[in-house]
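::Amino acid chain::
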Amino acid sequence: MDVVDQAARWFLRLQENTASSRSFIEWQQWLNAAPEHHMVYQQIEDTVSRLDRIPVLPKLPSAEELAQDTYAGSEPIAQWNASLNQEQRSRWADGARFARSRFAIAAGLAMAVLFSGLLWVHYGVVWHLGAYSYQTAPRGQQTVILPEGSRVTLGADSALTLNLSVGRRAVTLEQGEAYFEVTKNRLRPFVVRVGPALITAVGTAFNVRRSDDRTVLAVTEGVVEFVGTPENVPAPREGSASAAHADVGARPQLTARVAAGEAVAYFDDGRLQALPAKEVSLATGWLSGRRQYRNEPLRYVLADVHRYTGQRIEFVTEAAAALCFTGTLNLNNTDGWLRGLTVALPVTISAKDDNVLSVALIQP
């Protein structure tokens, strides 16, 4: 099978209802296997995307119009036309010629659709292909409607990029937090990369928070597929026992399906922790200006504070970072909350300079 056939098969596979995050990963592996894979796949996407610019597909000619076309193709059209009388020539020009040209256009489009699997043209969805970037400042918050219709609310000091192509909606959450309300589209999964993890949705709502070495996913509607690839676990070496059952160069992966009302925390070293159901409502409290925590390590709590103050926070000892906090953070009064933290926990907070806070454990 040549590269064009492979690329076409991958394009069609990604449009299927059964396409999963595993399909997306295998497709990425195929793309990266050779430079020409990228080039040929992009050519297919580019060709298919041009059809999206046609507002209305032409109709096929009616039986009546086809009946008016008596040209059999056995002689040059100029010679055949000269043999017609004026009335026949006029009728053919007004009817059959138009029918033939319209039929040719429709047939050509149908072949293009058949070749590329572009059934989505008939859904009337207009895609604005390309890359988009969104970013918020510390203390900021922004809600945006993505070009494909999904709604995203970005928390403070957060950034994401979106790449829209014909067959996929690929988002990378570079930093911070986002609440996604995904427009349903089974032919084009909505894939979010955050750290070493991929989150795949079709039409659902979920919250993602990235801080330090941890990603927290909370699903409020629908089901998402989660795939994590540990960053610090080396790929199996060629010839090793583990490599015999895996693609060389691939890292071990952890997969899970997370449904509405469920939340998980994924650590970069490969650990996946199921969180209590209440964490889902806690995870989205920031949308109304308050963030609630239950037995949350202080390192992650203050990582959130950093995004809402812009101040970098340093822990003098690991013991201070590991302290657990339960309570509510008022995002509009972080200064007051920090003062209260020194009462609630055995820590001191001091300013090293205007932009750095130092957190130390009070020794008993």
Observations:
- The first strand starts at residue 130 and ends at 135.
- The radius of gyration is 29 Å.
- The chain has three domains: 3-123, 130-283, 290-361.
- Confidence is low (pLDDT under 50) at residues 95-126, 232-250.
